[in-house]
Amino acid sequence: MPIEYVELMKEEIQSAASFKSAQAIAITLRDFMNRPEIEEDILRKDICGANSTEIENVILPCTRELGFEAEKTRLFAKYECRNLRPDYFQRQVGMRLEVERGKTVMNNMDLLDIWKCHICEQARYLFLIIPKARRNRKGGSAKQFHLTQNRMTSFFRKENHVNVDAVFLFGYGSEASARGDPGRPVPNRK
Fold first, then answer.
1. Structure confidence by residue, pLDDT tens digits, 132-151
2. What is this structure's pTM?
3. Going by C-beta distance under 8 Å and a sequence separation of 6 or more, which residues neighbour residue 160?
4. Planar angle of CA 169, 171, 177, nearest 5 degrees
């Protein structure tokens, strides 16, 4: 199931060198995540009850190669919330990368992620890696990717601009569940 990929950006940023660099890195990450063996590994780990670390571990070789550092500290030193950390940070272009699982929309983690990028002086770009659908133990699912895309789009209307020049959304997991189909069975966790 190919990675769903969307770029949301301020209109005036499209010709900026930093945007083109961020976009090239995003496309490299997307292409890595679309490799058949990586897709399969992500699908195996995209199960009810899993946490984001399991997905992070799959993409870690690529993020390291692209210059991302895990849980960079001191990015929020001037704020009262100085202990905030991104999942990953890339200093050269000023990019934060966050990997989410089940709480993307339910606990407003997508909004927290864009807020953290907004107040981070060193970051102008957000990579948000989220499930296409959130499956629950009762067999239901919510369209995480599309809900997040709709919520993020509001920040890229001129009247709502924040200090984030672009958000790159990556949707992983089963498309069948995102459509509300039963999809593949959820394996038992031991």
1. 987 766 666 678 899 999 99
2. 0.86
3. 154
4. 150
